[in-house]
TrEMBL record:
Its main location: secreted. The keyword DNA-binding does not apply. PANTHER family: FLAGELLAR HOOK-ASSOCIATED PROTEIN 3 (PTHR42792:SF1), FLAGELLIN (PTHR42792). Residues 21-137 form the Flagellin N-terminal domain. Gene3D superfamilies: f41 fragment of flagellin, N-terminal domain. This is Flagellin. Belongs to the bacterial flagellin family. Residues 202-284 form the Flagellin C-terminal domain. One of its GO terms (cellular component) is extracellular region. It is found in: Secreted; Bacterial flagellum. It holds the Pfam family Flagellin_C. It comes from Allosphingosinicella humi. The keyword Methyltransferase does not apply. InterPro entries: Flagellin, Flagellin_C, Flagellin_N.
Length: 285
């Protein structure tokens, strides 16, 4: 009889313990709003969530790189805009300097402004980014990884933008073109000066056109960076929604089950206490 009583007591205690565990689990699901608390709750779902976690972690790193690329692209565009403006001014000065009515002093003043423009361009070429590195690299263009197997160059190199500019006199760099134009204006021999000015006007026009094209290309680079950023952002939203669908709990259902189990446990405990009070006393005695 005692063995049977102990068996019933043990079974009831185990049942109530199971109810208590279910209640604790339901409370945890409600507080975390997740139905998968342990991999054993849903092995397939847990595996999918882990895979999503890895993908999101990778894409978060890619997105940080993309943000860096976007900042570089924006700074490069601002810098090229400044170069473009001073090159337009250089064109205006060369047209003005070609006038044969100008005095030597007038041409010297224009030449001085052109040399100042050349210095400004040289300074802009050496612009630094937020890391302190050259914005326009002297070697190959900086490439940044933005996805598995994908690297992009948000900014072209110095050589591509400011050097090897096609002119009638052969490839030249932008600073040299402007400095040569300044020198042409101060040539003492009138005939040589006229020829030099004409050649420099063409070279300055070539340089200006080259910078305009380089800025347009920079816009294409920036647009590509924006597209990649948009894709990664959209992917993160989709993955977050998918993860939520997999692991989120149905609050209405869980709360209903929780209340039912709490009532069951309370009722079982009350009945257990009344029915077995003498039995428990006897067993303890």
């Amino acid at each position: 009889m005692i063995s049977g009583t102990r068996y019933r007591l043990t079974a009831e205690i185990n049942r109530q313990s199971d109810l208590a565990r279910d209640i604790a689990r339901a409370q945890m699901q409600i507080s975390t709003q997740k139905r998968i608390l342990n991999p054993s709750d849903d092995p397939i779902g847990a595996a999918r969530v882990a895979e999503i976690d890895r993908t999101q972690a990778n894409e978060e790193a890619w997105l940080r790189n993309v943000e860096t690329a976007a900042a570089l692209a924006a700074r490069a565009d601002t810098t090229l805009e400044a170069v473009e403006k001073v090159m337009v001014r250089a064109q205006e000065l060369m047209v003005a300097g070609a006038s044969e009515t100008l005095s030597d002093e007038n041409r010297a003043t224009i030449a001085a402004e052109l040399r100042g423009i050349a210095e400004d361009i040289a300074s802009l070429i050496d612009t630094r980014d937020s890391r302190g590195a050259l914005l326009f690299s002297r070697g190959d263009a900086l490439e940044i990884p933005v996805n598995s197997g994908l690297r992009i160059a948000p900014v072209a190199s110095q050589a591509d933008i400011f050097e090897n500019i096609a002119t009638a006199g052969g490839p030249a760099d932008l600073v040299a073109i402007v400095n040569t134009a300044a020198a042409a204006l101060t040539e003492a021999d009138p005939a040589l000066r006229k020829t030099a000015i004409a050649a420099s006007i063409e070279a300055v026009n070539d340089g200006s056109a080259h910078i305009t094209a380089a800025r347009a290309e920079q816009g294409v680079r920036a647009a590509r960076v924006d597209n990649i950023r948009e894709r990664l952002t959209e992917s993160d939203i989709q993955l977050t929604e998918l993860r939520t669908d997999i692991e989120s709990t149905d609050l209405v259902k869980v709360i209903a089950e929780l209340e039912a189990k709490k009532l069951s446990l309370q009722a079982a405990q009350a009945v257990f206490a009344r029915v077995n009070q003498n039995t428990l006393f006897d067993l303890l005695r």
